[in-house]
């Protein structure tokens, strides 16, 4: 029996299998609102057979968006729109949905990847804004200087994460992931390369991780007891003198004490001079080391493209669940194909019941849909 298709528990949430659709920005919003693009994308995720779908980095405030086209959850209209969509999604699939709550900090105010500035910082007034950060250190020299958050602004930021979390629960998400990775605001506070504050939020390791822990606690306080909160981190900045694996292990342990449901292990994104040698599974050693140090699930992600590869990572106890991002864009039925390859059963909508892969008749079971 494969491990990939064994259930796993993230806090109180039980997943049918260990395939996690990793968060992917769609740059398809106006004013942070859902568009038809999201409707088709989320429905596609819901029918994929994945154990959990984590939707894209979703801004807790307008200026926390990476680009003007990012999804947001900073007002009641966003919450209502998402609630309507998730209610529809529930009629076609039981797949749980999670939101990734984010603030881009100094890496905000960028263009979309396919815009004229190709994902780079753009100060154009109609599409850009003043960025914020732990310190006045830009991501790259061509960016405007971010404004360093004052202590009272940090407190407001923490409150806004908490309000966004309340809205996320109200909207129908079953798990919240905090985005502490890829060089965005919470990661910017963690790394000594982007945080040179000399107050209680900078300097020592404890001070630099304080904001992440406070956001976690503030979120936890305002949502139902045992509602699962996961955290995505970059386990290294890939730059000498930056955030590293040792720091990540310490942070993971601190989050475990506070009750985090899992640690999702990515890397990089903080510094323009990062040197990453990218090859299949290049981030797995980080997940493995973190897994050895804590007793909660670890999600591994990054160039995991084949079902057998995912299975081997789990069998080797390098991780407890597998994040798939681009693999799902390429093959939205990746989990079906993984089930077929690993000779496993996966639940599908009855509308698809006549499909049997490769002549087999035992790989699918159906779940009930609620279509009138
Ligand atoms: C189009 C796209 C958008 C992404 N957006 C996000 C995001 O919103 N939040 C995040 O943490 N990572 C984001 N990522 C990173 C992915 O979640 C994932 O970590 C990365 O692509 C490596 O996994 P893969 O090799 O399976 O694609 C994005 C990746 C892609 C390709």
Automatic annotation (TrEMBL):
Cofactor names: FMN
Gene3D superfamilies: Aldolase class I
Keywords for the protein's UniProt record, in alphabetical order: Flavoprotein, FMN, NADP, Oxidoreductase
One Pfam family named in its UniProt record: Oxidored_FMN
InterPro entries xrefs: Aldolase_TIM, OxRdtase_FMN_N, YqjM-like
Domain NADH:flavin oxidoreductase/NADH oxidase N-terminal: 4-343
Molecular function in Gene Ontology: FMN binding; NADP binding; NADPH dehydrogenase activity
Record keyword S-adenosyl-L-methionine present: no
Protein name: Oxidoreductase
Species for this entry: Acinetobacter courvalinii
Phylogenetic placement of the source organism: Bacteria, Pseudomonadati, Pseudomonadota, Gammaproteobacteria, Moraxellales
